[in-house]
Amino acid sequence: MKSITSYTTSICAGVFLSISLVSCSTESSKWDNFTDEGTFIVHRRQSPIGEETYEAYTENDTIYVKSLQGENERGRISGVLSELRLTKDLEPVYYSSKRISKDTTNILEVEKIGPDEITVWEKHFDKVTQKVSGHFFPLHSNIPAGIEMMLYHCYFKYGQESLPTFPRGEVTVAHRAKDTVTVGGEQRILDRYVATGINWGGRTIWLDESQNLVALVKANTQIREMIKEEYEEALPTFIQGNVEEQMAQLAEYTQNLKGPEYPVVALVGGDVVDVAGDGVKKDMTIIVEEGKIVEIGKRESVKVSKGAKVIDVKGKTLIPGLWDMHAHSNQVQWAPAYLAGGVTTIRDNGNELEFATSFRDAIAKDGALGPDILLAGMTDGPGIKGNGVIRARSVEEAKETVALYHKNGYKQIKIYTSIEPEMLKVLTEEAHKVGMTVTGHVPALVNDARLAVEDGMDMLSHYNRILAALFTDKKVSDLGPYFMVDNEVTDEMVNNAIAFYLKHGTVLDVTLGLGVIRTLPKGEPMETLEPDAYRMAYELFESKRFRAGTSEVRAKKLKQNIIKSAEVIGKFYKAGIPVVAGTDNFAPGFGLFLEIETYNKYGGLTPLEAIRTATIVPAKAMGMGDITGSIEVGKEADIAILDKNPLENIDNIRSVSAVMTNGNYYESEGLWMAADFKPNRDTQN
Q1: How confident is residue 263, by pLDDT bands cut at 50, 70 and 90?
Q2: Contact indicator for 581, 289 with CB cutoff of 8 Å
Q3: 149: part of which helix (H) or strand (E)?
Q4: Residue 167's beta-bridge partner residues?
Q5: Which helix (H) or strand (E) holds 193?
Q6: What phi, psi does 105 have (nearest 5°)?
Q7: Cβ(355)–Cβ(363) under 8 Å?
Q8: CA 517, CA 531: separation in Å to the nearest integer?
Q9: Residue from 504, 501, 467 nearest 486 by CA
Q10: Do residues 444 and 420 lie in contact, with contact meaning Cβ atoms separated by under 8 Å?
């Protein structure tokens, strides 16, 4: 942690860095003349990446809470400086949080300017005045732990069922359990709660007997743990507690949304897209027994047995359930949201083992609501740029890593950037011995897509690394952000790369949609690129819909680069290279729609070919082509039901109104609402 502390000290000269907080009571006098301090350790996927120091003290009639958080997250050094001021009755009067870098930027500033008025200044927005009535708390999804501690003191003092927050939303806190942890040889009892309204879904928190925050586990785009320094040894308890709460939430979704199971279901009168063949079969009936397709035929020629559950899909288009081959489903809210978008299978490309296996097994073994989950085990090498807690820094560790993931039913090893060349060879050899395949990034020290494949990688992620195979005289790190625009790309180069990937049978997980998202110009709303962004759960606003964007010049070059990239990827696909659709965690459903649309609009694929990248192609790539991936007799009934035909217009892929998977039928609107997404405007008219 010394490098982080040194960094934050240098950029915050003159700022009081030692920051802390103490317990309080419901009486304002308890906040007179006190001081306390402490440190939270910041983890990403259980790996320490930084720390937050915090302090609280009373001066005159004001409580000051100050926090400094410094991180080195895969080599990206950042700092956040925050301050909260409250009255001794725990009424917030001022909050400021700023990201510290070469150019200090505002995250959120809230100030009370009158009895019922506050000003709110959120990054990228103008400062506005808002009315408040009663108690409130200033809040953003990455609120520092030291400040969040005061949120809970305020919540319990006010005694309200929910606490309004600004600039949006409200927080609720529910007691879930008491956990006993051992700290320094001493047993301590902590209260476990789930807080909702801060990040998407809930975060699991632990408070001590004085209601001080000692640990939290949160998600959204990644799992993070904030653990008070003296409680570090109890990290496994916090990991397990969060898994229990997540599974409890999944069970609640299942109970509320999963209807009765019928031995026989008949989908009557729909038009079926034949991804294994060509085109659409009109006015068809599909008979499903025990979750499998047993008959498909013209409506008038198929007999529906008495007692079957009949679902009228006349006028609708049925496609195979979609696959997201680059997911990071770090919380169970992805389950209803994925199904709502017609996604029935995902490959999770990196997650915490305890949560990922529990999530997968709850769906596969216990019948919980959600898409089928295939797991690729995140594995990285040494150093501060490493990702996650599972590292392969030696031959022994590499072998142990493969054995660990294989024992837990993982299908693949996921290679990350800091893996050393020698360890890559060991990992691929060990994985292949036990029937696992290897996917992921081209490691930085390998720095060559072709070498990575020759060293045993079966699949590659991300178009920029994949297309590096075009440039046999350059390394991945030498290409730059506009490599397809700034370099000549000839037919000979494309054909040479095609021949290489075909020879090795390499599967390409290109994440083009994520590249499109990154072309958002500064000041433009996300709807410019992602038309359904307005529907996202409000807690996702900051990290997904609310993006900084980039300069007009950079945005233009990035768009040119993604178009040229898509064109070449399209040629790869047409040459027979397996190209699979994946989102890398932008947003459930929407990200996959954007990915599929990009293949058609920029990559030259027909709508049917684009849909195949998210159905039959990934199913075959994962060795499941005889089980799912197309609507055929004998296969699992993984089916997305659309109001409009996507072969006529690829944008119609967004018209998913229902889904069938694992023998269950769900209507999308209820699933979206359960995941706190807004209804589709088109379906409301």
Answers
A1: very high
A2: no
A3: helix 145-158
A4: none
A5: strand 186-196
A6: -125, 145
A7: no
A8: 12
A9: 467
A10: no
Query: Which domains does the chain carry?
Result: 2-256 (no CATH), 322-628 (3.20.20.140)
CA distances from 563 to 213, 559, 584, 632 (A): 48, 6, 19, 34
CA–CA dist 45, 237 (Å, integer): 15
**Interatomic CA distance for residues 35 and 26, integer angstroms:** 17
Dihedral, 523, 528, 534, 535 alpha carbons, nearest 10: -140
Mean pLDDT on 403-409: 98
How far apart, in whole angstroms, are the C-alpha atoms of residue 139 and residue 148? 9
pTM of the model: 0.93
Residue 75, classed as helix, strand or coil, is coil
Q: What residues pair up with 508 in beta bridges, in sequence order?
A: 460, 579
Q: How much is the average pLDDT of 259-275? A: 95
Q: How far is it, in rounded angstroms, from Cα 404 to Cα 64?
A: 47
Parallel/antiparallel/unpaired status of strands 117-122 and 128-131: antiparallel
Amino acid of residue 516: V
What whole-number distance in Å separates Cα of residue 190 and Cα of residue 441? 40
pLDDT for 216-258, tens place per residue? 999 876 899 999 999 999 999 999 999 999 999 999 999 999 9
Q: What is the pLDDT of residues 105-164, one digit of tens each?
A: 889 999 999 999 999 999 878 899 999 999 999 999 889 999 999 999 999 999 999 999
CA-CA-CA-CA dihedral for 611, 614, 619, 622, to nearest 10: 150
648 exposed, middle or buried (CB, 10 Å; 0-12, 13-18, 19+)? exposed
Question: Where does 200-352 have alpha helices with state H?
Answer: 235-257, 334-340
Q: Report yes or no: 596 and 613 within 8 Å, Cβ to Cβ.
A: yes
- Give the pair of three-digit tokens for residue 635: 């296969």
Q: Tokens standing for 642?
A: 């659309």
pLDDT recorded at residue 3 = 37
